[in-house]
């Protein structure tokens, strides 16, 4: 993958070459192998390259054969060889970037529909005066922009836009969304004036300064559900996933795989090993030294089964203190979960062996892998239960009942959209209003309000639009790019996504088994004990760390005289969170982490 950036002026002034160079410099970690700029008077592009395909060729930015079109591209077009064979175009390179120019010459912007892979790119057409920005269907790769009366700018990361924006300010309306999601759903961000190009969208910028966004692909919310027998569904998913893994291995550099020992990463690793006939696969896992959450023994077991060369890294509380500020700079946002730090350490480990890794991201959101998916119907109809009673029950829970507590907090919300959002929300709607002293006026609820399909379908639709796109994929991109490593999630091939949303919910959660159809596929390649064991996830033992080595840091950051959180939120509520967790009467780790991450990020923003 790479870093891209660009500026377009509407006042007739030329783009400053020093500005383009500064934007590229801020993205150097995304592309340490090469860098370039292009300027066409009032418009200019910048690029930093991580070479994956056509290593010696395909420099960017790139211009078309008639110098009419110009493109800057981040990503991988996995079907680029087929497209090159189909397009009558005088190619000068052997890579995938030039395919975008050839497609545009033949089909215009509609050519994006022919792409498979992960991508974010900008293309300027000097004959029409239009600049087009396009982001892949699921939002695997990022793309941000800023616009005012005189300038439009875009970049792979927010930090590259700051030289254009000037002094960045917090978007106060986005604070409510952050407290609800641990991230800010598109098109908004925490920085005032900076927006995200939404997943599957096309943004067109015209010479008069107008900016228009529209979808070129949309996640199916309620398509015609296939009437398939469960075993036929298993066959279809198996076939589609194998094709996706095969495509994801397209590269001119070594490709490895993350292997946590869970069913998704284990299945991906097993399929990669089959494609390669067991030759030269490197796998990577992270451990935490805590018997409750450490899955490295399972990862080693799967590694032996698939025949990979396995590598491990131990993540400790010190890693959080040493890397938190740096990774907040890389993410351009608060670290939404403690796992962000672990994912970065994992990427660092992998980068010593490979340039590309495959991951199991997306499976839970497509096929119903979270424990909450068993209770989708309950979430829909729980409004009949008294909220106050549910909250009293949650407050009275004994230690160790965290999942039940999350469930009670979620279903205690007054509306169905808020209950849907509540499963991942660190703070309830009432707690958010109390912390900020006001209700949110622009809270993003649209993905949760889609009324089509059954309860599980609606839950997965919302997760794919919010939790997956704006948290997990954002984390995966930034933490891997911080180590100059490319991440590819085979589950998010759009053909597999469309298949997943065409399958009936009964093959996703079946007789209480979450992600049933994926687990049945995995049984063909892995032992039953790997497939059926309890889901742990990338869990970091923060509860004990916040009572131990990280306790003083938490108090200093959240209650000190220069604290943004202390000045912005209700101080008494913050004090109660810290005191309750320190005393062991409540496990407040998610809420403490959410506030700490906001504080660390704000200090980074203020210092830029």
Word description of this protein:
There is one protein chain. The chain is of the alpha+beta class and 608 residues long. It starts with a strand and ends with a helix. α10 (339-351) crosses α18 and α13 packs antiparallel against α14 (402-411). The model has no long low-confidence stretch (mean pLDDT 90). A six-stranded antiparallel β-sheet has the order 2-3-1-9-8-10, with helices on one face.
Overall pLDDT confidence: 90
- The termini sit apart by 25 Å
Q: Could you give the count of β-strands?
A: 17
Biggest sheet character: 6 strands, antiparallel
Low-confidence stretches: none
Count of helical regions: 26
* Global structural class: alpha+beta
Shape: globular
Percent range for helical residues? 40-55%
Rg on CA atoms, Å:
24 Å
Strand order of the largest sheet: 2-3-1-9-8-10
Relative strand content: 5-15%
List the keywords.
608 residues, alpha+beta, 6-stranded antiparallel beta sheet, 26 helices, 15% strand
Summarize the structure.
Helix content is 43%, strand content 15%. The protein has 608 residues and is an alpha+beta fold.
